[in-house]
Write a structure and sequence with these properties.
Chain lengths: ~200, ~290
């Protein structure tokens, strides 16, 4: 069931997801959103970049288990609340990740799926098309119930302009080189967005 | 390619000049796909540097990057220069096709590629452009799959295209067929870690945990520090333990899981970052 108070995005969660999608603009990309329901509002607090190749069972499972472990150790109320993705062709359909989305929804009833709509990026608008779980079906999320301030949007756009997306590490990168952290702790160090808070 | 070699070249290339030329060469030989960097350095080189023998290859490289990123000025400039210097080259003809693709003139692009094929039917790159065209147009995956299958009837040893087909099957959820493609790839190159690991992941996803475990084991044998292989092995063990508790509780399988977890733990013990810590915590719950 969709949250009556809408969705609120943490600026860093949004920026990290968008940067990840920008880094691999010619591949299928997948990541997780972590957060929790806060009263009537679904808060998306963190993005975990996962794959820029195929997303298959075993590694997806490991990634989700690790993300849950990370939730437990940072904020016990946080869990996997959704996924974000994009395809190389730029289509805004959720079909390619439906199976994964269903799985997430089986564990978290109010799960949502966010597909990149790249045409919104140059206009500094919220660049995801959302689908929320309503009674076992996926229904489009209206743009009016998504909350992210314009400052976060313009900061994200500035970071893209500076090609900061090259620094994003996802789980695929981590599996190839264990010293790279998929939590991207230092991605926004020293940036204005580091101090921004969720509304 | 040595680990870290590419990152070092990227850092060096900031100084411009020959370091940037070297980076672009490296990206070509190792087929590294990062068009932003190509455009950033290549455009500077084309503007300020005497490139000698490198001139036209860099120009082609910048053209491809610009075409992909939608940087129309550089795309048109490079293609104009290349056409002027090589008026009758098929290689440049193909680039013209790519330009048409960028402009969304699919019919025109197809005409160019068909023309190339009529003079040179063995031009595999033109064939591949036709396949790529279907892939780009959303909703045309079935056509792409069909044209790849047709291509493979003639060029059945082209492993890159088997790979492409495998990935497309994964995209549309035909995992059994995808697994078949990766079997072809294993026959072609039995020691490729990437192929073995993807095949193992596909076997797992189709529910064949037993076979999947064998391939993950082989991958861990070939490269004992490979994280993907070790995590795969651990998840297979867990899935099998779930399925048949009695058998997996035997000493042999317990040993295998212990061994896998131990390997992973020692890999993560060296990492101080938060991702490493999460991994260590998870690993402490994974033996039985």
């Amino acid at each position: 069931m969709a949250p009556p108070g809408g969705y609120a995005f943490h600026p860093q969660a949004y920026a990290k997801a968008v940067l990840h999608l920008c880094k691999h603009s010619s591949s299928s990309v997948l990541g997780l959103f972590l957060g929790h329901a806060d009263g009537r509002v679904m808060k998306v607090l963190e993005a975990i970049p996962l794959f820029h190749t195929h997303a298959l069972g075993p590694m997806l499972k490991v990634a989700c288990m690790l993300a849950e472990e990370h939730c437990k150790s940072t904020d016990a109320t946080m869990e996997i609340v959704g996924i974000y993705h994009a395809t190389a062709s730029g289509s805004t359909e959720m079909t390619p990740v439906k199976a994964i989305a269903d799985k997430i929804a089986a564990n978290f009833a109010a799960a949502s799926v966010w597909t990149l709509d790249a045409s919104k990026l140059p206009e500094k608008q919220f660049a995801f098309k959302g689908m929320g779980r309503v009674k076992d079906e996926w229904k489009a999320v209206g743009g009016d119930i998504v909350n992210l301030n314009s400052e976060a949007l313009s900061e994200t756009s500035r970071l893209i302009g500076e090609m900061r997306f090259l620094d994003v590490v996802d789980f695929d990168d981590h599996l190839a080189d264990g010293s790279k952290s998929w939590l991207n702790e230092t991605l926004f160090t020293g940036e204005k967005i580091e101090k921004m808070r969720i509304d | 390619m040595e680990p870290g070699e590419y990152d070092a070249l990227v850092a060096q290339a900031q100084t411009g000049g020959s370091a940037a030329v070297e980076l672009l060469q490296f990206m070509r030989t190792h087929k590294i796909h990062q068009p932003e960097l190509v455009l950033q350095h290549g455009s500077k080189l084309l503007r300020n540097q005497w490139l000698g023998n490198e001139l036209f290859v860099v120009m082609e490289q910048v053209f491809l990057a610009a075409a992909e990123l939608g940087c129309d000025d550089w795309r048109d400039y490079c293609l104009k220069e290349l056409t002027r210097n090589f008026p009758s080259s098929l290689r440049v003809e193909r680039l013209k096709g790519i330009e048409k693709e960028c402009q969304g003139e699919w019919k025109e692009a197809e005409k160019i590629y068909q023309k190339i094929l009529s003079t040179k039917p063995e031009d595999t790159l033109a064939h591949k452009r036709l396949i790529a065209m279907y892939k780009q147009q959303s909703g045309k995956v079935p056509e792409a799959i069909e044209s790849i299958n047709k291509y493979l009837e003639t060029f059945s040893t082209d492993s890159e295209v088997w790979h492409e087909l495998g990935e497309l099957y994964i995209e549309v959820g035909h995992l059994q067929r995808a697994a078949f493609c990766f079997e072809e790839l294993i026959v072609h190159n039995p020691r490729s870690m990437y192929t073995i690991l993807t095949y193992a992941e596909l076997l797992y996803s189709t529910g064949d945990f037993e076979a999947s475990r064998k391939y993950f084991s082989m991958a861990s044998y070939l490269d004992e520090t490979n994280l993907r292989a070790l995590w795969g092995l651990a998840t297979c063990n867990m899935a099998l333990a779930e399925k048949d508790k009695a058998r997996e509780k035997t000493k042999q399988f317990q040993e295998l899981q212990k061994f896998t977890v131990q390997r992973l733990r020692s890999a993560y013990n060296r990492q101080g970052n938060a991702a490493g810590k999460a991994a260590l915590k998870l690993l402490s719950t994974m033996t039985w």
